[in-house]
């Protein structure tokens, strides 16, 4: 794992949103639907010509560990050292890891496919920072390589907005969220409480930037990507205003 000095982690008011308790409380959600996501990815990636995959913002490696087991050469990049250590342990060093701030990372154009999944770019609020991430991803891909980007559809969230949300992981850990959406900035302001039946509660704050398809199209084209397809869900249904997701399949020009 590369050693770098991370000066500016994600903008979570120093509440360390992506810690062990994130993996604990979201445990069920991180597994639910995962197989459908893997099936979606492998329906797009050609194993003969696109075997070298980078997951940009890989978290605990839930996608790349499975892709590695299927024979792909996988690498995960994340700002969180603890998550990368989990990947190294679970893959016994087979999955490569890069500890880096995705806003600053300059790649070597050596990957066939780059993934950025589960609204990862949105965890950083600033538009310019998000553009830098897309440009970094561009620098990691070989010419003609694929970029698969999955995001929450802003239009869907606005039409189905809930200011309160909660769920449990089925093992005595719960998350309660208070949300406020600012339509002028497209920022979702989240106050999150994580509770366990037998431990102290912890409080987190995060601002999440949501995007319209129009904005994403502009960011992609100005960064040197051609959009090949936009799906609305992992079942490959077409993207519509009512689709919960925006799943972009792009090619580096
Ligand atoms: C929503 S989570 C994980 C998404 C992952 N692709 C998945 O589907 O599980 C977002 C991840 O982005 C990472 N992250 C946030 N800001 C980052 C940055 N500036 N550079 C690299 N990783 C970052 C966090 O540590 C976290 O693991």
From TrEMBL:
Pfam families, per the entry: Methyltransf_25 (PF13649)
Lineage, opening ranks: Bacteria, Bacillati, Bacillota, Bacilli, Bacillales
GO biological process, one term: methylation
InterPro entries: Methyltransf_25, SAM-dependent_MTases_sf
Alphabetized UniProt keyword annotations: Methyltransferase, Transferase
Methyltransferase domain mapped to chain residues: 53-145
Molecular function GO labels: methyltransferase activity
Protein name: Class I SAM-dependent methyltransferase
Organism of provenance: Paenibacillus kyungheensis
Extent of the signal sequence: none
């Amino acid at each position: 794992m590369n050693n770098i000095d991370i000066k500016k982690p994600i903008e979570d008011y120093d509440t360390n949103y992506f810690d062990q308790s994130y993996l604990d409380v979201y445990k069920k959600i991180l597994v639910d639907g995962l197989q459908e996501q893997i099936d979606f990815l492998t329906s797009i990636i050609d194993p003969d010509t696109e075997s070298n995959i980078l997951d940009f913002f890989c978290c605990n490696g839930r996608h790349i560990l499975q892709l590695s087991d299927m024979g792909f050469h996988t690498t995960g990049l994340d700002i969180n050292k603890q998550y990368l250590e989990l990947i190294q342990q679970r893959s016994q060093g087979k999955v490569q890891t890069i500890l880096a701030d995705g806003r600053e990372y300059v790649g070597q154009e050596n990957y066939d496919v780059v993934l950025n999944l589960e609204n990862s770019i949105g965890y950083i609020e600033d538009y310019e920072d998000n553009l830098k991430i897309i440009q970094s991803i561009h620098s990691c891909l070989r010419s003609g390589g694929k970029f698969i980007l999955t995001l929450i559809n802003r239009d869907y969230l606005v039409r189905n907005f809930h200011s309160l949300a909660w769920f449990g992981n089925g093992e005595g850990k719960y998350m309660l969220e208070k949300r406020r959406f600012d339509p002028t900035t497209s920022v979702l302001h989240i106050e999150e409480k994580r509770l366990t039946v037998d431990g102290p509660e912890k409080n987190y704050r995060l601002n999440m930037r949501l995007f319209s398809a129009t904005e994403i199209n502009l960011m992609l084209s100005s960064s040197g990507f051609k959009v090949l397809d936009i799906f609305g869900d992992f079942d490959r249904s077409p993207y519509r205003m009512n689709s919960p997701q925006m799943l972009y399949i792009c090619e580096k020009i």
